[in-house]
Design goal:
By secondary structure, the chain is mostly helical. The chain is about 85% helix and about 0% strand. It contains 3 helices and no strands. The protein has helices spanning about 5-25, 30-40, 45-80. Helix 1 runs antiparallel to helix 3 and helix 2 (about 30-40) packs antiparallel against helix 3 (about 45-80). It is elongated, with a radius of gyration of 19 Å. The two termini are about 25 Å apart.
Amino acid sequence: MNKRNLKIIKIYIISLFCIVLYFLLENSSIITELVQKSEKGRYGSFLTFFLTGLFKYGLLVIGISIILIMSFMLIRERKKTLE
């Protein structure tokens, strides 16, 4: 395997890691515990809930985007070499 293929595999693994981390955050009680603890704070629980939601859905968007972009680039490159 050459270095290019290893880089592509590493990028796909990072993407899958982001998606798995999203599902772990979605199905765990970490976020609800953080929101409950932050109710005592100055701004209440909204800011914590908002930031954790941004982080969680950011992971999902990044993971899916990387897969789609890399697949599109590889398919486009394959089509060019076949022509």
